[in-house]
Amino acid sequence: MGRATVTSGLYFLVDDSAIDQSIALINSIRAWDAETPIAMIPYREPYKLAATTLTRLPGVSLYDDKRRLHRLDRNVRLLFGQGFFPRPENLRKQMCWFGPFDEFLYLDADIVVFEPIIAMTGYLTAADFVCYSDQHLSGIEHVFRPGIRKAGLFTDDDLSDVFNAGFWGGRRGVIDEDQLYEHLEECARDKAHLDRSHGGSDQPVFNYMVLRHIPRRVNVFKQQIDAPRMWAGSAGLVWRNQCLFDPQAKQPVKFLHWAGIRLEPGAPYWEVWEYFRHLDSKVEVAVEREHQHAQNSRFPRASRFWQRQSDRILKWLDR
Question: Can you give the pTM of this predicted structure?
Fold first, then answer.
């Protein structure tokens, strides 16, 4: 018998404050890949406007398992305490392990891609976890505190595998829901070793879980000689022909991540992000239509009044 059909897809977190970032991400994905399904996971309330707007786009859906999300949020609070995480919602990306895709990639919304990025799931034929990260080049900073080396929790090889939690992939079932809470409970016991000094939340916890419990892992960046960079704080990347090129690696960039950088005019490679944000006029129409619908729902009488006035002015101008 042949191998059963494997469904592959992409996830990201969404809420109403990140509609523009989400559009840029989706447009960049669709520039290279018209088919791969994309599922959004609610980040925090409100998210309905973003969900309604973006699910109008082909192949985009909302993965909104409210019971699981509630259990995850509740367990995080119980295990780590109410104020431990500045942004506990970041841990909702762990919902990827239970979603509709057999193999998946997770991407933060402040990413744009420059190739059919789903191809990176090909590494999951020989691994249970894949990432593309240069986090290890800075040592364990932003992930663990120095004392973890003496705690006996990880080998030096393990600690050389630290990764950025904004771009990674796996296979459904590698971690089930019970195991997730067991891993989080174990991490909570060792939370004194997590580096929280840079405002991070899920990255130390997720690294702890993966390095402790997923031995079959691969960092594609580490496997390649002169691999192209991926952080928007990297100087010298060249934007040409709708692609980003890394002269240092002499290769095109696979994706660009504005991790820790506010996406606004003046940000590094702002013109790259703007290009993808406004790439597809059909998306612009969908966004405008949904915004108008939301305004009409909030102020139905006022909107109908102004619509009537607008109609009268147009008729007058047409005379």
Answer: 0.89
